[in-house]
Design goal:
The chain is mostly helical. It has a single domain, classed as Arp2/3 complex 21 kDa subunit ARPC3. It has seven helices and no strands. The chain has helices at 2-23, 35-41, 48-65, 72-91, 99-108, 110-132, 137-166. α4 (72-91) crosses α5, α4 runs antiparallel to α6 (110-132) and α6 (110-132) crosses α7.
């Protein structure tokens, strides 16, 4: 029963991502993505190896659906999946809860879930922009900043308004 909710959420995240990619192309340097948010909300009890496989496959599906470099989303999402528990441990460092309970407590503390989303999108876009092509440092920084700010705000709004209520 529990896994069914996450499978449905994965399909919804992929559909949203595909719709965004097809119909919401505001500006070429701005890339809106919801898949890192889905990786974040997956349960802590999921083994890291499965989390990485899920992230890689969802990234590959996203890459294959668009006219881009195959592997950009896959590599970036894999890194987010690999570092997810590291970020959660840092955000709950002084908490007496174990890691499985800590993600639930993060959901109750908006500032911590915001930081988790911010860290995840930062890692995602650092690798994504580097793999997408070498650009002058100023362009890299501006593109990175634009994408992280916009996606973090969208991800936080989705997490607060929709995702926590669904799961």
């Amino acid at each position: 029963m529990e896994s069914r909710k996450y499978i449905i959420a994965a399909f919804i995240a992929l559909i949203i991502q595909l719709l965004i990619g097809e119909f919401v192309n505001i500006w070429p340097p701005l890339y809106i993505t919801v898949i890192p948010l889905f990786i974040i909300i997956l349960p802590i009890s999921l083994r890291r190896s499965w989390l990485i496989i899920i992230a890689f496959m969802m990234g590959l599906i996203t890459d294959a659906a668009f006219d881009g470099v195959l592997g950009l989303n896959a590599a970036s999402l894999t890194l987010v999946a690999y570092l997810k528990n590291f970020f959660i441990r840092r955000l709950t460092k002084y908490s007496s809860e174990d890691l499985a309970e800590s993600i639930e407590s993060l959901g109750r503390i908006p500032s911590k879930i915001f930081l988790l989303i911010l860290f995840s999108y930062s890692v995602f876009f650092i690798l994504y922009i580097i793999l997408d092509g070498i650009a002058p440092q100023s362009i890299f920084f501006h593109r990175f900043l634009l994408n992280v700010v916009v996606n973090t705000l969208i991800g936080f709004a989705l997490e607060r308004l929709w995702i926590r209520k669904m799961l």
